[in-house]
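User: Sequence in, structure out. Go.
Assistant: Echoing your sequence, followed by the structure tokens.
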Amino acid sequence: MITKALRANAKPMTLDLQVCSRARLSRDPRFDGKFFIAVLGSRVYCRSICPAPTCKEKNVRYFATAAAAAEAGFRPCLRCRPECSPGTPAWLGTSNTVSRALRLIGESGLEDGGIEVLAQRLGVGSRHLRRLFLRHLGATPSAVAHTRRLHFAKKLIDETKLPMNQLALAAGFGCVRRFNAAIRGIYKRTPTQIRQLAHQKTNEPENQYVFHLRFRPPYHWQGMLEFLAARATPGVEAVESGTYSRSISLDGVAGSLAVSLEEGQDSLKVRIQFGDPRALFFIVGRVRSMFDLNADWTDIARILKSDPILAQRVDAAPGLRVPGCWNGFELATRAILGQQISVRGATTLAGRIAKSFGQTFPGTGRLTHLFPLPEALADADLSSIGLPKARQQTIRALARAVCEGRIRFEGIVESESFLQRLMEIPGIGRWTAQYVAMRALGEPNAFPVGDVALLSALKLTTHAELEHHSAAWRPWRAYATMYLWRDPSDSGAQGKTQKPSTARKQSAGRTGQNLPKPDQIAAAGLNL
């Protein structure tokens, strides 16, 4: 099962000092966010790509996480901005309990009752949870939550014009005084002084925010757009001019987001329009999941390329990711609509549901509706949209299960029990359940066994053969699925992959150091 596979691959986070040293000297972008460099003299910790002059090896220390560096008394660098580094996958290199805890902390910090409540929700004791965090991450749950909150606050200071009182609330601080004290204590500057250093040149309209979210190259942006464009729900989603946009809703507040690739940068530009800044932390985190920005491509490619059938596809389209979703219920409904019909047909039906049962979106352009909530579809008459009766019943049953709390897409979600409960709904089989786990839960090992396209691509005839063949791809079967679904001849150069910038290549060349090889990276314990 999915979680068992991840648990089997779990191991404590360890750092190979030789590889870290070579990555630091070369400023290798593949290691960005995988470890942090602390300088003893300045008491500052940096990303591996920091442009500051390199220090002697005896004057630096290496930490697996930013929280661990902060716990040791180091403060974030204002030049390379550790808060902008690509995230590390919560389920990679950690125990299952830690990965679930990180997901909860990423969604709401520790605002729902602190460590005791977090441990209770995970089914472990608070002392045991602390021990697990120290073992795998080098910091306690409180330190991890605090560092994430501070990093997001710094990002808001640098990238938005949000007033400081609203910014403090958006970053999860209870009041401005606590916010000011925390920023001054860590950065040795006031929030206003830090904002002055950012040199912002643009003023965004009210309730509009722009963020720059980093990823580790390569990133196949064109492949991501093609997948999302084919499945975009009319009126809810749109893909045009290299930009993905959609309407969103949280706690009754409507908004929108637009995501595009920043040329020459290893990052996506995200424009958010939303009336409540307190939701920005959640929205940004969800966008990172939607576009799979935390993936470690080197490790994924190493496993997939061991299969000769996949090796050619991986080389032709490096950096292909697994698209996530904004809302799990919406994705599951869309998956039910797509059973036994074409992608275009399912998209048309999804647009009819949004128009008939979703709220009107108060915006302009191609975004006209919000996708309906489960409450709106639990007892809805879906016959008017041309949907077969059996599938109408399946969608209503799913909506009722979500309303009653029997199926949840947020918070702690055990994949095995989730899949079991999902398949208990009449009309949802294993393929649909695995597809939902793949995109809504972000399970990297989810695999839609029985998919006709997969059987055809591998020239297999039975489901058992497909299951047996896929065993070598664990725990990255979802990524293998994306490659097998993709036409191998469709590997156009336009937007194929996002490579390290020229400046970084030059900086690596100036050091005179050899870059770590992929096999050395895999053996370094960094899961890159």
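User: And one key feature?
Assistant: DSSP finds 25 helices and nine strands in the chain.
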